[in-house]
Amino acid sequence: MDDAALRSEDQTITSAIQDGQRVWANDVLHVWEQLYARAGDKTQRRDMSLDWADLAFQLVSSSPDCWREPLSIRLLVISRHGHVSGHPLLDGRQLIQDALEHVPWTPAEIRTLFPIWREHTPDTIRQMGRTRNILALLTQLADVLPTDLRADLDPWLEVREAARML
Asked: b/e string for 87-110 if b means 16 or more Cβ within 10 A?
């Protein structure tokens, strides 16, 4: 798909979602994968990469079925272009905050709950799996953040081992 067609399809799907129309998650993810690939293309200039990343981010952020993709696109551009405080995509603190909104437990609760995961309901186990995925993403983020921001992640990275038991 050429760039113009991809931008048009992105706009069509995003508008449909914003208008409250039913959009299949697979359609969103199909377009997202192409936008994501263009955002991650190492041959592109920084501003072009960020433009594609912004399109991808807007698309998946508008879809109620997507929670991991907005976090992934931010991680991609931060790892590629670095942390920039206040930037809509490049702010590592914002990524941390958005990621942790999906984690219903504190680090202390994770240490207690995860080792006995078999005793929980299927819904809780699914949430635990999501938490494990978020902790993995935060671990990747810690590798590319400035040292002063990594301190915000330390309590979460320390409990990642407990989440691996799941």
From this structure: bebbbbebbbebbbeebeeebeeb
Residue with tokens 């038991």: 165
Q: How far apart are CA 28 and CA 16, in angstroms?
A: 11
Instruction: Provide the whole-model pTM.
Output: 0.80
CA angle, corner 54, sides to 50 and 55, nearest 5? Answer: 120
Confidence band of 165 (pLDDT split at 50, 70, 90) = low
At residue 35's C-alpha, the angle toward residues 133 and 87, to 5°, is: 70
Helix axes 68-81, 92-100, angle to 10 degrees: 160
Q: What is the CA radius of gyration of the chain?
A: 17
Distance, CA of 158 to CA of 73 (rounded, Å): 24
Distance CA 85, CA 87 (A): 6
Contact 153, 135 (CB under 8 A): no
Residue bearing tokens 């501003």 = 47
**Closest by CA position to 139, among listed 115, 155, 117, 116:** 155
The yes-or-no verdict on residue 42 having pLDDT over 70 is no
